[in-house]
Amino acid sequence: MAFSPARFIASFCGTGFAPRAPGTVGSLAALIVGVPLLGQWLWMALAVMVVTFVGYRATQLASGGEDHGWIVIDEVAGMWIAMFPLAPLPLDGLRWADGLWLALAFVLFRLFDITKPGPVGWFDRRHDALGIMGDDVVAGLMAAAILAGIRCLA
Questions:
Q1: In CA terms, which of 37, 84, 89, 125 is 20 to 30 Å from 46?
Q2: CA–CA separation, 111 vs 127, rounded Å?
Q3: DSSP classification of residue 49
Q4: pLDDT tens digits for 37-76?
Q5: SS3 69
Q6: Do 48 and 81 contact (CB within 8 A), yes or no?
């Protein structure tokens, strides 16, 4: 397997090549890399857009239309979208309760990504880059909506 920039991006710097549960590993890596974006909602929004568009192109080039397990850039986009309601959290003052919000964002995103309800499943049935990226973007949007709703009630 030769190195290519598209594979490197699509695998999120190689995290997609984890021997077990590459989607979960990619989502966890996205969570960790995304934490420094907290407190910077504009930068987080920009990061989501960039990773989605660059990820789409890398997936187009590297996938051959197949959703290989090592492609996890879609998990990065979805996880960062799921984290977006937490963007106002100040990075310098994270409390243990904020860790619970981050954990909930992770769990909700993974739940929707794995179970593929409604539109998540529709995108997943496509066999192209739009489907590969789309199911995780929609799973992230669903997780973000629920997370935002719960935060409003809390």
A1: 125
A2: 21
A3: H
A4: 988 999 999 999 999 999 999 999 998 878 899 999 999 9
A5: coil
A6: yes
Two tokens at 14? Answer: 């190689």
**Both structure tokens of 95:** 């409390």
CA separation for the pair 13, 61 (Å, rounded): 16
Provide DSSP, the chain.
Answer: ----HHHHHHTTTTGGG-SS-HHHHHHHHHHHHHGGGTT-HHHHHHHHHHHHHHHHHHHHHHHTT---TT--HHHHHHHHHHHGGGTTS-GGG--HHHHHHHHHHHHHHHHHHHH--THHHHHHTS-SHHHHHHHHHHHHHHHHHHHHHHHHH-
Q: Is the pTM of this model over 0.70?
A: yes
Count CA atoms within 13 Å of residue 29 on its CB side. Answer: 20
- The whole-angstrom distance between residue 32's C-alpha and the CA centroid of its chain comes to 11
